[in-house]
Amino acid sequence: MVQEKIRVDTLVVGGGIAGMQSALDLADQGYQVALVERDPSIGGKMIQLSKVFPTLDCCSCITTPKMSAVAHHENIQLFTYCEIQAIEENDQGFVSNALQKPRYVDVDTCTGCRQCEYACPIDVPHPFDRYLGAHRAAYVPFSTAVPQKALIDMENCILCGKCQRGCPANSIDFTQKEQPFEIESRAIILATGFEITPPDAKKEYGAGQFHNVVDALVMERLLAPTGPYGHVLRPSDGKEPDSIAYVQCAGSRDKTLGVEYCSRVCCMYAIKQAMLISGALPLADITIYYMDIRTFGKGYDQFYQTAQAMGIEFVKGKVARINEDENQNPVVRVEMIDEGSKVVERMHDMVVLSVGMLPCYDPQPIFGVRSAEDGFVLTPSINMAPCVTEHPGIFVSGTAAGPMDIVDSIVLAGAASAEAAAYLEANDGNRRSVKSTTNAARVTAHA
Amino acid sequence: MSNRVDLGLLKELKEYGHVNVEACFNCGNCTAICPLSTDETPFPRNNIRLLQVGLKERILQSTDPWLCYYCGECSETCPRDAEPAEAQMALRRWLTAQYDWTGLGARFYTSNTWAIGALLFMTVIVLTLIALFHGPMETDHVELNTFAPIHIVHLADLVMAVAISLYLFMNVYRMFSFIILKGAKVKIPLSIYLTEAWNLPYQFLTQKRFSECEDRRPWLNHMILASGYALMFAIIVLFLNWFQTDNLYPLFNPQRWLGYYAAAALIYGAGMAIWGRAKKDRQLHKYSQLSDWLFPILLILLAVSGLLVHIFRYVGMPLATYYAYVVHMIFVPSIYFVVGPMGKWAHLFYRPLAIYFQAVKEKALVAQTAPAVASVGAD
Fold first, then answer.
1. What is the ipTM of this complex?
2. Option in A320, A334, A335 nearest B77 (CB)
3. Which residues of A touch B27 (CB under 8 A)?
């Protein structure tokens, strides 16, 4: 059962990689943290990915331990399937009104054995697999979900009761209701993440109507060992694609979409996926159509050069249009800028849109924190304090602050924790006897 | 070939339209989306690049801007809002001014004062000439040919036609010298000029290339306008004796319905252009300069005043007929001496000529490389 009121040092909103890292960094220092995640599992976008650049580490292998660490940390209270609805501020800090959504499963007794899932007769397209696979109406969110607890998708449930009869722990509880509770904290870290460009954003690219034009997150799922097919197959007919094209900047640096900024990750993830496809389908031709290749991080340019050496074709030119032939093969139209400006139409078996990162959450109504013009959380002193918002005590971590990759998200998560810790120290007379706000004073006090 | 960089080119171009090519990061979207761009003439990105770096000579030698009909798709899809289509439009105005040996084109395009001043100047000239040469004003019944003796009007017509033709011819020669004499990297045999000559009347009459744009409605509007204009031009220059007459022909006579069609087509076509520019509902109409307004407005005034002359004469109002005729006469030379060979009107010739010159250049290049290919084949 959820308590009606809890008291912590910091509330972290969002359980993706940035939120988890911020929570862990604070918890490891001894601060009490509440982590609130709106989805039924933590892990965010990162747990959906196949491998990470530039090391090609398996994503599950490095994300799952973090998820477990969060769930089992003695200083972290984890609330999944839970949303913050309002906050109030007083001289003690913030009082957040949280709402625990009903899972219709008693999480204290559920063992995640999935018997309910096997019993449930309803299939629902699964957002975790970008709708290529399905989950049941009674289901565990995904194989490495944390917490490994079932929930019932009441919108699709037909109340047949099969899950209830199948559950060996008698955990199914159709009478659960939404449960409001309060979280008192003295600081807040927003780690609300990002969304990808919607599939219908660009009509020149088929507005999401072409089966074999997919976004890069779909390709992540196709490449992931836990993916829907366990293999790279194109969606329209299950054929193994021989020719795959990447269309870069399909959602970034495009004023017609209202997105002027560079999303910073697409060049690298496209190159990474191209490499992974080369491994999965050694005979496939892979082309990356780009405007500029921006591989700016540590080890990133070498990664790009490796891809070139592997035989991945890089074509300079923005794809202007994608059409579909009678066999549902996508045909891209592009000016080959480095090939005498020839305009060509090239057929591929599959096209992957390197979609951009969009802001997905406006914290203004609830947290009173403004967003910048691009929709990401405003950090007025971007150079000197990139995770400090306009509102004292509220910090921002990861892609809520702007497009960035996992490396930078983790860096910013650490920075946000440090800022939050400094704020807690400076504004708290009980926990530690330090009230100074200056670095020098803090160092002296710790010494 | 001169590769001299003209640092003032972009600034100069900005006086000819809404030029925003600094925003362009050369992604190639515009060239790839354009249904008219070809391997030989890839545009608009290429000439936008030339503009960015200030290669004035290369742009002068280019036919590209004339090959664009402003469907606006490149501007609509441009990820930088660099307005590539409007850059082509500005380039067409600029090229028109460059082809014009008098320098009036540049004046009229870049200064509204000059353009309006020229319009007023022409009005004064016409009124003076009419004051000097008009015949007696018969007020009992309409005798237009007594007021405006047909032989004088026709003579004035012909003199004007010859003057404008000479003026235009000199501009066309300059265009030819830029595009072919300086711009062709290949020797062009006379035979190719002849075998490709069909392009001129064909493109002039059908505007075939225009019809290859994805949205064909602008082409249709333009065809209606152009047909009305060409018909009216032919009637006035070649058959004025038949057209300006005090005889009232019966309705089924071609003199009547040809005239009505031409007037209706002019009013409809030019009216649609003006309406579109006022509403700015299509990319093509988003940015308008005085010259874009003046040409269709003058055409409409010409057609409406001509119709008024006809109506007043038909209902037998002598004075009204004569005054309407004077007004009508003001607009005829205005078109040619304000938006004529130095301005927007000249596109009637520059567009087919550009297509012709481009075809000649391309054929000559093929002819030059063909023997080599043939000999390789023979081996």
1. 0.84
2. A320
3. 249, 291, 317-318
